[in-house]
Automatic annotation (TrEMBL):
Name of this chain's protein: Uncharacterized protein
Organism: Rhodococcus aetherivorans
Top-rank lineage group of the source organism: Bacteria
Lineage: Bacteria, Bacillati, Actinomycetota, Actinomycetes, Mycobacteriales
Length: 282
């Protein structure tokens, strides 16, 4: 697998189809279809979607992932007309918007929250219950609102209980860092297939093995929507209490446990620098 840093060009057909084959992806398409029907005046589909910022998308994704994992959000989208031209056009427009350079979630710098006393090399391990998350990684988030917040704080997952955690900017060289970008279920499945760990009848990522090849794994906005069990392969039981069980079903687990757009650094590459913000430096 070749590094896919910043690879947001090309046609969206495959990624759009992936959105329509996962619960979170369908939910976002469904939300936009409903909002577009109520729009007055009504621009083109592409212009309607393009009007939203990365911050708007992130806010929607946080709600959608929560509804998928712990609510009944899937029930509204299981019978969507997937071949309807309006559905396909909306999925393509969302994919194109999320791949636009203005919404690139993997740019330098990223942010890290939490007090850093001394930077040590990540010691990546598999968790006691192996799954979608590594243990011992150094985590960064995508800046939002001109750097005043980030995807962690938008999701509510940043250092819960701390009202004002220290924040740092993390600078890296995209030409040096080897980062695998997860945009689709296929990206995630391929990474696991190359670095598999058998656990309870499924394959999960073997994080120490991944760390031998990659500096980091980045989950993009598209990946947060689409790197989940495909409905064409793992049917959703509408009578389940929430979708967390579905997210862990099938040949590999989905990325729901990541919670938000983020980057797991498995090792520190050259030209990697952490700079404290004014607040962190106090």
């Amino acid at each position: 697998m070749e590094p896919t840093y910043g690879n947001m060009s090309g046609m969206c057909s495959d990624a759009a189809a992936n959105l329509l084959d996962t619960v979170p992806g369908r939910m976002l398409v469904h939300w936009y279809l409903r909002a577009y029907r109520d729009a007055d005046p009504r621009p083109s589909v592409a212009a309607f979607v393009e009007a939203d910022t990365l911050e708007d998308f992130v806010d929607d994704l946080v709600l959608i992932i929560g509804e998928y994992l712990y609510g009944n959000g899937a029930n509204d989208v299981l019978e969507m007309a997937l071949t309807a031209p309006a559905t396909i056009e909306m999925a393509e427009a969302i994919c194109a918007a999320l791949r636009h350079p203005s919404r690139n979630t993997l740019a330098s710098p990223q942010t890290h929250e939490g007090t850093i006393t001394e930077l040590s090399l990540p010691r990546v391990r598999n968790r006691k219950r192996p799954g979608a998350l590594p243990d011992g990684a150094f985590w960064t988030a995508t800046p939002l609102h001109d750097g005043t917040s980030d995807t962690w704080s938008a999701s509510g997952e940043n250092l819960r209980g701390l009202k004002d955690p220290a924040r740092y900017t993390v600078h890296f060289d995209p030409d040096v860092a080897r980062i695998v970008r997860i945009d689709t279920a296929g990206d995630w499945a391929a990474l696991i297939a190359e670095h598999p760990l058998e656990y309870r009848g499924a394959r999960v990522p073997d994080w120490p093995s991944i760390a031998e090849e990659w500096d980091a794994v980045h989950l993009s906005a598209l990946g947060l929507l689409g790197a989940h069990p495909r409905l064409s392969e793992v049917p959703y039981d509408r009578y389940e209490a929430g979708g967390y069980r579905h997210s862990q079903s099938g040949p590999w687990p989905g990325v729901g446990d990541w919670s938000t757009v983020s980057t797991a650094w498995l090792r520190i590459p050259e030209r990697f620098e952490i700079r404290p913000t004014t607040r962190a430096a106090r």
